[in-house]
Write the structure tokens for this entry.
Amino acid sequence: MNFEEFIYKLPKVDLHRHLDGSVRVETIRDAALEHGFNLPTQDIEELRKYSQVSPDCKSLTDFLKTFDFFYEFLKFPDVLERIAYENCEDAAIKENIKYLELRFAPPLQTRDDFTEEEVVKSVLHGIKYGQKKFGIRVGIILCLYRYHTITEEQNWKTLKLAEKYLGNGVVGIDLAGDESKFSVLNYKKFFEYARSAGIPITCHAGEAASAVEVKHAIELGAKRIGHGTHIYEDENIMKLVRDNDIALEICLTSNIQTQVVDNINLHPARKYYDYGIKITLNTDDPSVSGIDLNYEFQLAVKVFNFDLNDLRKIVYNSIKAAFLAEEEKSELISKYFNNSIISS
Ligand SMILES: [Zn+2]
């Protein structure tokens, strides 16, 4: 078995994947045509250049520009349902992912009379059929959003939707958006509400902003951290993450493309792993980044020299940190990973 085959065959988990960053080019084209938008070309390979950066992209502007290109095409029930369904297919068939958590911010997908709740229902519908057809388990995370166009009222609506659909497709909430301008501390009351309602919390933190955002997120109740790339700046925060069993949702290629880390050899993932922090490997925005989870695992092996046991441990970390009931985690482990996921 060659290296690529081996990585493919390893049963995997992705805990950090944005629905709107995981869209096939064909779907972007069809959505535009069906809903009356103009496209610069209908050629798939040409369209790919507008909707995807190359894996070695190092420009935040280019990265964000790709979202602008197709974002308006997504705001329709049929398109969101299709994207959700295709995410199940791609993850199960192309990446051998056994459990996937997909996230999105409902207010970013609304239009005219297409409401936040209808957005959520469309995605859940696609997931329902995709899970059944492709034998993958998928959980939805609804993202509160830090951005000047997103109002407090909209974030409350997202949180209430998470509460309403928790256990019926939704598994938790996230706080996404621009952490360099909006500290997690501004969202304290949302976190308090989520905790009292028993909604699991993850939070983008320490990606574009400093380690202290990670500390705040943990103190407010986050059980996982999206990225946490900057925690190396403060050993006390590394210790806080490790000692509280907080899993880091590492997204290697994304961190390079958005210039959070200058180059992959400087990425702190291995340092965190050796320190005893529970790291997980994820894709963030696979179609925009031009990668998948196989690619990220291969990259991690090449750069950090992880061996089979390390990879198994990383997948095991993901399962343990998944927003699933303990019995569902045990079921996943016994079904796909046996008890040999960590060999001593
Ligand atoms: Zn993300």
About this structure: The CA atoms of residues 74 and 266 lie 35 Å apart. The chain has one domain: 13-337.
